Amino acid sequence: MLKRxxxxxxxxxxxxxxxxxxxxxSSGSLRIVVRGLPRGSTARYVVQGPGLDxxxxxxxxLLGGLPAGRYxxxxxxxxxxxxxxxxxxxxxxxxxxxxxxxxxxxGRATTMTIAYGAxxxxxxxxxxxxxIGVIGNPNAPQAILLRAARGPRRGTIFTxxxxxxxxxxxxxxxxxxTRDGGLLDVSVTPVSIVEAVPQLDYTGSLPLKLTSNEIGAxxxxxxxxxxxxxxxxxxxxxxxxxxxxxxxxxVEVRQAxxxxxxxxxxxxxxxxxxxxxxxxxxxxxxxxSFDLGGVGPFQGEIPVGPVVIPVYATxxxxxxIDVSGRLDVGTFNVASTTVAEVAAxxxxxxxxxxxxxxxxxxxxxxxxSGSAELSASIGMQAGVGIAKGANVHVEADFGPDFTWHxxxxxxxxxxxxxxSAGVQVFGRSLTSPTWTPFVLHLWKxxxxxLAGSPGVASGGGQPSPPSSGGGSVxxxxxxxxxxxxxxxxxxxxxxxxxxxVGGVTDTWTDYADAGGGEGSPIENGQTxxxxxxxxxxxxxxxxxxxxxxxxxxxxSAYYASADAFYNDGATSGSLQxxxxxxxxxxxxPSSGGGSxxGGGGTPAQTYAETTGSVANTWTxxxxxxxxxxxxxxxxxxxxxxxxxxxxxxxxxxxxxxxxxxxxxxDAYYVSADAFYNNGETSGTLSGTxxxxxxxxxxxxxxxxxxxxxxTYAETTGSVAxTWTDYADAGGAEGPEIASNExxxxxxxxxxxxxxxxxxxxxxxxxxxxxDAYYVSADAFYNNGETSGSLLNTxxxxxAVPEC
Length: 803
What we know:
There is one protein chain. Strand 38 and strand 39 (625-632) form a beta hairpin. By secondary structure, this protein is mainly beta. It is 3% helix and 47% strand. It is built from two helices and 48 strands. 46% of the residues are buried.
C-alpha cells in the first residue's frame, strides 16, 4: 500500500513539473525602459494584452509570466513636478508615440522603450484663433490684436506657425493687455525657444513652404530666382547678360532636436535645387559678379505637444562670370539635393554638407574660344524659432562652378563652401566645429577645340530626369557625356545578367560606404554584365542593393548602386518608378553584410554554425524586434557573417549573429546562444559558449557579454553607483561597485555632469554589468593606483577609448 502511495505521489509531482514546464515555455517576460523624462519624473502607461489591462507608474519594470501573444502599451503624458534648468515645475512631457503594439513570445524576454520627446512648460499656449492682426513689424510684432472678451494672463507664452499677419510665426511672452474698443492689444516680447519648449525631438520629412519671395532680380513669385537678358550689350552694372536661374524645388527638415540640459541641438535640412548657368548673349572678355537678391523665406512648423514651433530658411544668391575670349549662347544645368547636418552642444558636435541625386544636362549649343568660368553661390540661413530671435541657427553656402577651356573641355563642380550652426542656452553660445570647404566633382564633357575652331557642347534643351543612384550623374544632349577617355565596356560575359544604366554611373571597390577605389564610370545607356547583388551603402532614395559588375574593365572588382539601372528590361527612358534591383540577379554568395568584397570581388568569409534549438530571427537586434524573419530549424547549420552586441536574452547573452545564408541574406539577426559555438552539431546547449570566438565582430560593434574586445582594468576609490542611462544618471539602477574593487571598462562616453564637474562615464564590461550599465568615471583612480585618496586624480584614464 505504501509503495502504491509513493508511486501516485511521484506521478503527481512529475505531472506538476510537466505542467509548470509547459506553462513556462508558453509564457514570456516584458522589460520596460523609459527615456526622455527629467529626474524626479515618473512615466505613466497602460499595458494591455491577454488577460492584462493594468496601469503602471514606473520608469523601469520587469513583468514575468505573461501569456504569449499580442500586447500594446498606451503611454500617458506626465506632469513634471521638479523643475530643472529651463524646465518649470508643472511642465508637461509628451510621449514620442502614444501607443505601441508588440508581441510577447514564450520563453523569451521582450524589451520596450518608452520615449518622451517633447516637454512644454506651463502657460505656453497656441496663439488663439481670435488673433486677427499685429501692431508693428509682422516679423517681430510689438502686440497681437485679439477679438476677445478676456485677455491672456501676463507671462503667458504664445507660439504660432506662419500666418498671413505673422509670416515668420511667433514665440513670444505676453507683457501686458489693454483694451481698444472691441479689440485687445496684447503686448508681447520674443523669447528663447527653451523658455517655451525645453525639449523637442522631431524626425521625419517636414516640408517648408515659400511664404514670400524677396528677390533682387526677375520679380518671380515662385520659389526661383532668374536673371537673363532681353538683348543688349554686356554690362556688369546689371545681371542681364547672364542666363541664370536658381529654382528651389523643395526645402525640408529631416531632423530637429533641442534639449536644454545638457544643452544640445541637432538639425538636418535638405534643399533640392536646380541651377542654370549660361549667357543670353555672346560674352567677350568680361569679369562680372552679381548679387541677385534672395529667395524666401521658407516657413514651417514643428508640432510639440499642443503647440508648434516655427522653422524658417532664406537663400541669398550670387552669380559671377569670367570669360577670356568668346562664349556663345547656351546653358549648363545641374539639379541636386544638398543636405546640411549640424550638431552643437555637450553630447555631440559635428557638421556635414553633402550632395545627393545629382543630374547634369546641356541646353542649346554653347561654344567657346578661350576660357570661361561661371559660378553661383546659394546661401542658406535657417533656424528654429523666429528669424529675429531664434536661438537655433544654421548658415551654409553651396553652388555650382562651371569651367571651360576650349582646348581641354569643360567640367562642372559643386563648391561646398561653408557651414556653421549654434544654439543659445542660458546665455551661453554653443557652436558647431569648423567646417573645411571642399569641391565635389560632378561632370566632365564638351568637345575640345580643333585647330582654328571653338570648343563645342551640343545638345537639346530638355532636362533628363534626376538619377536616383548613389552619386551617379545623368547627362543628355551631349555627344560625349563622359568626355574623359573612359574605356568602352567589353562584351557581356556569359553566365551574367545584362543590365542597362539610365545615367552615367559611378563604380567603387567598396559597396559598404560607396568608397574605396573609384573605377571607370558606366556611361549613360550602356549595358553591362552583372554577376550578383549585395546589400551595402544606402543611397539618397533608400536603396541598399549594389551590383557586382562582371564586364571589362570592371571585371568583378567594382560595384555600382543597383538603382541606377532600369531593372525591368528597359534600355532607355526615365528611371522614375523603376525597381531598385532586378530580382533575376542572384544574391552574391556569403556577401558578409556589406563588408567590401573589393580586390577582385572575393566574397567575405563566413562561418558555419549549428543551432541546438529552433531560433527566431529579427531585423533589429537592439530589442529583438523590427521585422521577424524565417526561423532557423533545430540542428540546422547556417553561414554567419559576424556578431554584434544587442538585446540581452533570458540567460544574459548579448551576442547576436548576422545570418549570411539565404533567405536571411545578411538582413536578419539571431541570438548567438542558440548555437553550439564549439564545433558540435548535436546534443545539449548546456555549458556551450555564448559565441564562437572565431567569428569576428561586425564593423562598428562594441562588444558583448564575455566578448573579445579590449577592456581596461580600473579601480574605484569609493562605492560607485551604476545606471543604464548615463545622460541623466538614471534609467534602471544596477549593482553597486564596491570601494577599491577593480572592474573591466570598455570605453567612455560624455554624460550627466556630477557634483565635481565630471562628465565622463565608463561602460562597464565586467559581469554582472555586461556593457549594459555605466558609472561616473571620477569614482576611479584612473592613474594605475588601486588605493589611497581620490583627491587630484584625473576624471578619466586617457588610455580608455571613447565609445
